Amino acid sequence: MRQITDIHELRQLQMGILDHVHQFCEAHHITYFLSSGSLLGAVRHGGYIPWDDDIDIYMQRSEYNRLLSAFPNDGHYRLLDPAKEPHYFYTFAKVVDTRTLMVEDETEGYEVGVYMDIFPIDYVPDDPEERLRLFKRKKLLYKIRRCKISRSNPLHSRLAYWFYKMLPVSVGFLTRRIHQLIVCEQPSRYACNMTEAGPHIKHCFPAEDMASTVDIKFEDRIYKTMAGYRDYLACTYGDYMTLPPEDQRVTHKFKAYWK
């Protein structure tokens, strides 16, 4: 295998995945939004944040489910569905380039190809106290699941790690329980990425931000994002046009290879 050490080569692979998903969504009228650091990069830098090395999109839960049902796993792009992949590390989908291999420090023992993350967006309670209770429950369930599935200790406490790891519940049970907890069919005024990679409770954003889509430039191409993207970015990042301190400009820890 040849290691991919050039970030531009890595980004071209990721852009190929984004192009493929964009074209599929356009053809099947599935709504997606460029999101997170990818959206921030599009607005602030016209593409990737200079120190960033991944791509994220959001989909409202109903659109996300449509994608999982319809996406064809042919060619060299494959969608990883948490409900169908044995021993899958995450609770959200990824589309991977099967010609490649990616090894991440935080997922020791679990390997995928170069990927793009696809996060479902769920409604959250309008009542702040009820929302806080929801976030506390999901945080605990994700913590237990992470301890169950991780080969190394993701917590500060070794005792807590082994306590959670030895609890007599399966990863499958925890995954189903998390899904039951976070998926809300009843629309509310606020929404959030409720996966383990989601933000803190204070970064929930108005659901009306996703009422429609607009075109946005990312690198040299045009994709889709939510019409209320500036409000979403302000909710998520605060003063999003200001660069963070240099010690906070971090990249992900992984190695990528051509198979």
Poorly predicted residue ranges = none
Radius of gyration: 18 Å
Helix/strand class = alpha+beta
Count, helices: 7
First CA to last CA: what distance?
5 Å
Largest sheet: 9 strands, mixed
> Based on CA inertia axes, which overall geometry fits?
globular
Topology as a string of helices (H) and strands (E)? EHEHEHEEEHHHEEEEHE
Compute the number of strand runs: 11
Approximate helicity band: 25-40%
Mean pLDDT: 94
Strand content: 15-25%
Features:
259 residues, nine-stranded mixed sheet, globular
Quick synopsis:
With 259 residues, the protein is α+β, with helices and mostly antiparallel strands.
Question: What does this protein look like?
Answer:
The chain is of the alpha+beta class and 259 residues long. The protein is built from seven helices and eleven strands. Strands 1, 2, 3, 4, 5, 6, 7, 8 and 11 form a nine-stranded mixed sheet that branches. A hairpin with a 2-residue loop joins strand 9 (213-218) and strand 10. The longest helix has 22 residues, at 7-28. The model has no long low-confidence stretch (mean pLDDT 94).
